[in-house]
Sequence to fold (396 residues):
Amino acid sequence: MRHVVKTNLFQLLFTQVLFLSQALVSNAQEDSVATSATTEFRSMPEVLSTYFETPESWIADYGNYRSPLQLDDGTTVTDQKSWDTRRQQLRQWWMQQLGQWPPLITKPELEILEIKNHESYIEQRVSFLWTPDEKTVGYLLIPKTPFQKPAVVTVFYEPETALGRGKPNRDFAIQLTKRGFVTLSIGTTEATTNKTYSIYYPSLQQAEVAPLSMLAYAAANAWHVLASHDEVDSKRIGIVGHSFGGKWAMFASCLWDQFACAAWSDPGIVFDETRPSVNYWEPWYLGYHQPPWRKRGMITEDNPAQGLYLSLRKESKDLHLLHALMAPRPVLVSGGSEDPPSRWQALNHLIQINDLLGYEHRVGMTNRPKHDPNPESNEIIYKFFEHFLMQKKITH
Fold:
């Protein structure tokens, strides 16, 4: 009997010691995350850090957006474990709404069509499968440095623009390559020529996946192209795009969590039917319906929205529920006419999730009056990628 008592006492003491040890480890891990986040912010250049502080007038202003942390039964997520479950639920919900992706092309075959030798980098015109049955042509730019490098996917209507062969201040690929990044520029050249703009799977007549989500899928396959390249560090791959490309980059980075960080240039980060360029209702984004399509333009009684977009609006679902999937990865909104400072109301929900996870200063926004990017707004984008990808891997 004494032996049993001693054994139980020993077990009790052992359990208490084990509990205390686990608590100390947990606290140490939390302290480590907090310290890492603080150090990360302190090392951020001042030209960048000012944009990663919510302006005083918008602090804790969550607008009319329902918190992603609030469940359907009214309960609220309060810890990381619960958030992991909630995040999985949100992603599953989005994929159900958008349509399930085809299998990713994890072992891409890259065909080099042309090579140009520039002073500080190599330009390769390349082709690869970005859907199970469709190839795309893009440009892979590789700096002439011997070590593994960070990389960025750039997305737009056509890949040449990011190389400086189109509208001004959209040359993200060439500018980032000159700063030491491998870049892969892709675009929907043929669809843009045909004014269908997007990717339709399995066909234009019978798309089973929302076109904007198929663009995200194609970007995930582009991520695999970069990740499989010998000169790329697969843990340090970001994505950037403007306007149409901003929507593309936003959906890609939120739905494919292997992108380490992302910059979204004035896509319209939430639904807004007062802004003509926040046009998610168009068939090539979230308003797909079988052709013939609605007349392009603003929603009116005579020209209503259709498809998934209409369903999301009726259910009061907005894109802040998509942003939530970025946490805790860094994101920069390069806001213009479509994303004014009031968008902090939506971004504050993402900041709240990051706070729950122990991360600060992972959400930033710049603002300019016009939709078009400019040298000043682009410089912040480049500083963003340099800070979060060039020197280190992101902790999350």
